Amino acid sequence: MPVALRKRVLVTGGAGFLGSHLCERLLTDGCEVLCVDNFFTGRRENIAHLMSAPYFEMLRHDVTFPLYVEVDEIYNLACPASPIHYQFDPVQTTKTSVHGAINMLGLAKRVKAKILQASTSEVYGDPQLHPQPESYRGSVNPVGPRACYDEGKRCAETLFFDYYRQHNLNIRVARIFNTYGPRMLPNDGRVVSNFIVQALKGENITVYGDGSQTRSFCYVSDLVDGLVRLMNAPDEVTGPVNIGNPREMTILELAQRVIDLTGSSSEVVLRPLPQDDPLQRQPDITLAKSALGWKPTIELETGLESTVAYFRDLLAVELAEAHPMAEVAE
Ligand code: NAD
Ligand code: UDP
Ligand code: UDP
Fold first, then answer.
1. What share of the chain is helix, strand, coil (3-state, %, to 5)?
2. Where are the alpha helices (DSSP H) in 11-120?
3. Considering the domain boundaries, does residue 329 fall inside one?
4. Most buried residue among 85, 86, 308, 325 by CB atoms closer than 10 A?
5. CB of 141 sitting under 6 A from ligand 3
6. Can you give the residue ranges of the NAD(P)-binding domain (predicted)?
7. Mean pLDDT score across all residues of the chain
């Protein structure tokens, strides 16, 4: 592809779970990719296979500080996403969402780049309306332990729309619902990774509360496709657009599916429900279907199988590193 036609795309949070899959997809699409990450929850291993690609570049940088680069498009994904990680340093989480958004919007304004924000279903909080359409304004506890994430993301959306109205920026806002797949961290506390790792290790499966709360899980390749379609949609499609899989299930059902799929002898144990844990969540994806021609294509069973395979390999490597002589000893 001639150099002039190759889009230069910045992915913040590009060494994370979603970001690394997005970088991969953009390289496949023929883009030049600049991955920016401070490695708070991102891992070098997620992008190691991309480092030798001629149009991939990695920059270690914290988005709460200004960044001066020349790009055509920006996907702003930098932000820890799992409750234990975003609550570890809540002030930094808010800074990452808010100062990070200001810096990336300032960058987009200077270089006239299109910019997409990875927002979240958490802007709906513990929703009183079900399923959640984009018009729903949400029910967030502004002083609870999840607020650093929820309110940070809500403020980032506000900033995107103010830069759009005030500076005519070309913006996109995606509200991402629970997404799973290979490269989730085994220890980041999210439900899919927790359950799979527990099942593979034969440990108890920790269901919080009575397990009747619901979530709707989207496989990572579907999600990435939704983000790329949103970025490439006509300029008037600013969003916010829900991107997620509407297949809803209780957490207890998920636990059972993981046990069945792994053939594990693990048993379910109940643990206290964290404060402000949303009781139900399901995206209304009418807008994504009509505006982006997008809907998820990967069935939960298929997605879980490849995620289980990923964690099986990861745990085998960890075991081999912890007991290098195990094979010899046998
Ligand atoms: P992740 O934690 O794997 O990725 C986040 C990445 O951002 C990491 O690589 C981390 O090191 C990096 N990062 C954090 N703070 C940074 C900073 N100040 N400067 C530079 N880099 C920084 O999480 P993920 O699941 O890949 O989520 C990616 C984005 O999608 C996040 O913005 C998240 O809020 C959003 N999102 C994800 C989900 C989901 O289910 N995975 C749901 C809703 C929204
Ligand atoms: N910024 C950046 N890279 C750029 C341009 C701006 O990181 O290429 C940051 C800079 O920190 C600035 C912020 O984005 O403060 C907002 O930029 P804007 O132009 O909107 O406002 P300013 O604060 O410069 O008046
Ligand atoms: N959850 C659980 N056991 C775990 C981890 C999470 O029962 O080991 C529950 C959690 O309380 C929540 C749901 O699973 O109701 C999804 O949690 P996750 O942290 O993955 O995402 P979020 O709450 O941000 O949607």
1. 45, 20, 40
2. 17-28, 44-47, 83-86, 90-111
3. no
4. 86
5. no
6. 10-306
7. 96
Domain-embedded: residue 98: yes
324 part of a folded domain:
no
Write the CATH number for 8: 3.40.50.720
pTM of the model: 0.96
Nearest CA to ligand 2 atom 6: 106
Kindly report the protein residue whose alpha carbon is nearest to atom 1 of ligand 1.
Answer: 16
Q: Is residue 326 part of a domain?
A: no
End-to-end CA distance of the chain: 53
Q: How many angstroms is it from 140 CA to the middle of ligand 3?
A: 17
Query: CA–CA separation, 89 vs 310, rounded Å?
Result: 29
Which range of residues forms the domain containing residue 186? Answer: 3-319
Q: Tell me, in angstroms, the distance from the centre of ligand 1 to residue 78's CA.
A: 5
In this predicted model, what pLDDT tens digit does every residue of 211-258 receive, in sequence order?
Answer: 999 999 999 999 999 999 999 999 999 999 999 999 999 999 999 999
If you measure from the C-alpha of residue 60 to the centroid of ligand 1, how many angstroms do you get, rounded to a whole number? 15
Q: Measured at the alpha carbon of residue 20, what is the angle toward residues 14 and 25, in degrees to the nearest 5?
A: 110
Using CA atoms, how far apart are residues 116 and 9, in angstroms rounded to an integer? 11
- Would you please indicate which residues are annotated as catalytic (active-site) residues? 149
Confirm or reject: Cβ of 191 under 6 Å from ligand 3.
yes
**What tokens appear for 142 in the block?**
């502004």
Alpha carbons within 13 angstroms on the beta-carbon side of residue 312 total 10
Q: What is the pLDDT of residue 319?
A: 73
Asked whether 307 and 260 are in contact (CB, 8 A), the reply is no
As a whole number of angstroms, the distance between CA 17 and CA 221 comes to: 11
CA distances from 256 to 211, 260, 264 (A): 11, 6, 10
Total domains in the chain come to 1
